[in-house]
Amino acid sequence: MAELLKVSLHSPEARDFYIQKILSSYENALFALQLGDSAGPPLTPALPAPSLPESSSISFGRPGSGENVISKKRKGSPTWEDEVRTFNDNGLDGNNDDGYNWRKYGQKDIQGAKFPRSYYRCSYRNAQNCFATKQVQRRDDDPTKFEIAYNGKHTCNHSASPSPPPSPEKYEIMPTHHQKLSPPSPRETLSNLRANLSVNTSNLDGDSNTAPSSFSFPSTSSGLMEDYHQLQFPNFDNELLQVYSPSFISPVTSESNIFSEWGSSQSLNFLADVDTDFEFSSLF
DNA sequence: CGAATTTGACCCCA
DNA sequence: TGGGGTCAAATTCG
């Protein structure tokens, strides 16, 4: 659709048509994500690491999650908590930091997964016999998200950044009145876009002419997402697409993490290694 | 130069 | 036997 949109920019009707198609496909994707989250076995709602910015429960294929086909468990290995969560990396929100210091001790390519799984243990494992570990893996279907599995409880008292848990409001459904927010002036927005927007296609796999498979959006510092977006595509001769679509930021996404970007984080190095995904940023 | 990460080897078990 | 988790030497980082 993006490709079609590209060749139809001259025609306002066709342009609007394809924009609507793109937006509706996003809505469908978001809806599917929500269905996926609510389906499946009930996972423990209690979250031991409350400072994580997000909390949709998704299975890792860990034993006990009961939803993944590939489920192998070593006999003597510790039991992974059922609670496995997806969370995005929100650069403005301070990244993947969950309040503990982790030290990476391994990385493995996992069969059937596009991205490797990273293994972390508590930095104070030796100093304080803290045997908490976690696994971090990028999702195949939404590379802007991570799935994190925690194992063991922290016995150390060196929790790194005692960042308070995020306010729930931040991740709630956007009230409709936000749709009434007046958009920024076109000139201002344009200059901001030129200054800040970036699209990295340098490491795209395969056909770089195909439409991007994923976008990431940073959230605003205020945590509010306005429904006014200006998207600049890299090969559109800098022609600016103004998309005003309340439905685009559908309330379906209580996971505002859909709109995220890679940020500085514990896993940034890992991310940089596998930075083959289309990256798209936008101001709000 | 110590700490953290990378990465291939190793181990265990289904 | 091979996948996944861990180890540890080599390398990089700060």
From TrEMBL:
GO terms for molecular function: DNA-binding transcription factor activity; transcription cis-regulatory region binding. It holds the Pfam family WRKY. Residues 96-154 form the WRKY domain. Keywords: DNA-binding, Nucleus, Transcription, Transcription regulation. Gene3D superfamilies: WRKY domain. It is found in: Nucleus. PROSITE patterns: WRKY (PS50811). One of its GO terms (cellular component) is nucleus. This is WRKY domain-containing protein. It comes from Ambrosia artemisiifolia (Common ragweed). It comes from the Eukaryota.
